[in-house]
TrEMBL record:
<feature type="coiled-coil region">
    <location>
        <begin position="187"/>
        <end position="235"/>
    </location>
</feature>
<dbReference type="Pfam" id="PF00635">
    <property type="entry name" value="Motile_Sperm"/>
</dbReference>
<dbReference type="InterPro" id="IPR013783">
    <property type="entry name" value="Ig-like_fold"/>
</dbReference>
<dbReference type="InterPro" id="IPR000535">
    <property type="entry name" value="MSP_dom"/>
</dbReference>
<keyword id="KW-0472">Membrane</keyword>
<dbReference type="InterPro" id="IPR008962">
    <property type="entry name" value="PapD-like_sf"/>
</dbReference>
<feature type="transmembrane region" description="Helical">
    <location>
        <begin position="263"/>
        <end position="284"/>
    </location>
</feature>
<dbReference type="InterPro" id="IPR016763">
    <property type="entry name" value="VAP"/>
</dbReference>
<keyword id="KW-0175">Coiled coil</keyword>
<feature type="domain" description="MSP">
    <location>
        <begin position="5"/>
        <end position="125"/>
    </location>
</feature>
<protein>
    <submittedName>
        <fullName>Vesicle-associated protein 2-2</fullName>
    </submittedName>
</protein>
<comment type="similarity">
    <text>Belongs to the VAMP-associated protein (VAP) (TC 9.B.17) family.</text>
</comment>
<keyword id="KW-1133">Transmembrane helix</keyword>
<keyword id="KW-0812">Transmembrane</keyword>
């Protein structure tokens, strides 16, 4: 296997430059390997270009095209020169991989896998005046003697739809994640999961509020029960004290009555004996 996993045509992105007009360039990737190869496209000027698609999987012995669209410019660059560059990364992926299987970690060099990189520079050319344009391997020949072939905007407009949206990128070479269908699907799935999670969190928060309300009501009832228990205990203590006092009073009264009874016994006895004596004296003959 050679050093290049995919063959890239063309190696220069030639844009027919006209003020306030978009221009596009088609790039073809050819997989010469017997393996599945994934690719990713990055750029140093993310605000000026959009790439569709920016990631994909090329089957063995197959080709894949991506379109680079330069957004409409309002000023001409100095000397019609741009230092913009594109980076095409490619790496072998497991057999049967699809676009949905592509993740950023696949192109990480820290994973230890081989990452092939190819840089493409940008060239601006004047718009062609001849209507005869023929596409050949992703480039356009303006004639046999034309050494500066360029894509005619009208031809590109008919052959390939031009995106009217400009996407933001990050860092020097950044990914156009929003344009890839797989990433769009992932984002939609993520939004759906976030919505579901927010709904569950809202329900859990409502349940927590209901639980707190129930806990507050239970605490209020427990506080009232504690107060009632305290009142009942106090009443019970008072009742016990009254019973004790009543018992003590009864004992005291019994003792007083007994003492009085003991103190009056001789008097009654004497009177009883006196009465008995009188009766006996009356009854007995003299």
């Amino acid at each position: 296997m050679g050093s290049e996993l995919v063959e890239i045509q063309p190696r220069e992105l030639r844009f027919a430059f006209e003020l306030k007009k978009q221009s596009s360039c088609l790039v073809r990737l050819s997989n010469k390997q017997d393996e599945y190869v994934a690719f990713k496209v990055k750029t140093t000027s993310p605000k000026r270009y959009c790439v569709r698609p920016n990631t994909g999987v090329i089957q063995p012995r197959s080709t894949c095209d991506f379109t680079v669209t330069m957004q409409a410019q309002h000023t001409s660059p100095p000397d019609m020169q741009l230092k913009d560059k594109f980076l095409v990364q490619s790496t072998i992926v497991p057999f049967g991989s699809t676009d949905e299987d592509i993740t950023p970690s696949i192109f990480s060099k820290e994973s230890g896998r081989f990452i092939d990189e190819c840089k493409l520079r940008v060239v601006l050319v004047s718009p062609p005046h001849s209507p005869i344009l023929q596409p050949f391997n992703g480039t356009v020949k303006h004639g046999e003697d034309d050494e500066s072939p360029a894509l005619k905007p009208d031809f590109i407009h008919k052959a390939f739809p031009i995106m009217k949206e400009s996407l933001s990128f990050k860092d020097a070479f950044v990914d156009d994640k929003n344009l890839a269908p797989s990433h769009a699907k992932e984002i939609e799935d993520l939004k759906s999961k976030i919505t579901t999670l927010e709904s569950k969190l809202s329900e859990e928060a409502k349940d927590m509020e209901d639980m707190r309300s129930n806990i507050d009501a239970l605490q209020s009832k427990l506080s009232e029960a504690d107060k009632m228990i305290a009142i009942l205990r106090e009443e019970n203590t008072t009742r016990i004290r009254l019973v004790d006092r009543s018992q003590q009073e009864i004992v005291r009264l019994r003792r007083t009555a007994a003492a009085r009874a003991q103190a009056g016994f001789p008097v009654f006895f004497v009177i009883f004996i006196w009465i008995v004596g009188i009766v006996l004296g009356y009854l007995l003959p003299s």
